[in-house]
TrEMBL record:
Pfam assignment, any one: HTH_20
Protein name as catalogued: ArsR family transcriptional regulator
High-level lineage: Bacteria, Bacillati, Actinomycetota, Actinomycetes, Micrococcales
Gene source species: Isoptericola halotolerans
Key words of the record: Transcription, Transcription regulation
Record flagged with keyword Transcription regulation: yes
Top-level taxonomic group: Bacteria
Domain HTH deoR-type: 21-76
UniProt-annotated stretches for the region Disordered: 1-23
Keyword Transcription included in the entry's annotation: yes
Amino acid sequence: MTTTQTPWGAPAAAHASHAESDGTRRRVLELVATEGPVTAGRLADVLGLTQAAVRRHLAGLESDGTITVHDGGAGAGRARRGRPARHYVVSTAGQAELGEQDSELATQVMRYLRRTGGDEAVEAFATERNDAVVRRYAPRLTATDPQERAAQLADLLAADGYASSVRPVVGPLVPTVQLCQGHCPVQHAAEDFPELCEAEARAFSELLGTHVQRLATLAGGAHACVTNIPLTPPTPAGRSGGTQEGSR
């Protein structure tokens, strides 16, 4: 029986296996962005794979420099035989692989805008950009429960490439969740133009109808953008008095 060949002469079965492996590698990277800091065990549960299979992909991603071990994850759980569990996050190189092809152009455009129109032009652009997000998202945020509404926002952001998730916060007197964005399509532009981050936080506050507090950003060097959201009922108009901005 003749073995089917690909155009490059490799057996079709081997080519398909390689493509499947690349697809799993990409899925692991995307999950690290969404779930990170995350362990191999958690990834295996989500993907329905063995931990050994997931660790092979993690080892390859770590070797490529696209993920790294998170220093603050040791206390979140322990692996078998008492060893600290390794918690992974996406590196700067991994953020680029997730899709930063247009980031340099975006940064150049923002620099031109500041040079020709000044800081006011940059602020106006950032506000207009996120006002458009509010108009697009608001009709799709149908939940009245604050936590469900935050989860809907995370889903919308995830669909737009922000690798977002909502996580509960244990301990505060006021019930709180954190909106985590493991990827940002405009991260590199935001490194030079924090107005983009500030306008985004205002958009979140308007969409959720409550004060929010930005705790960390990818543009500021964190492994994710993290926004604190108190679980208070949204105002009737879906608006609040503003946002509370944390340090970047």
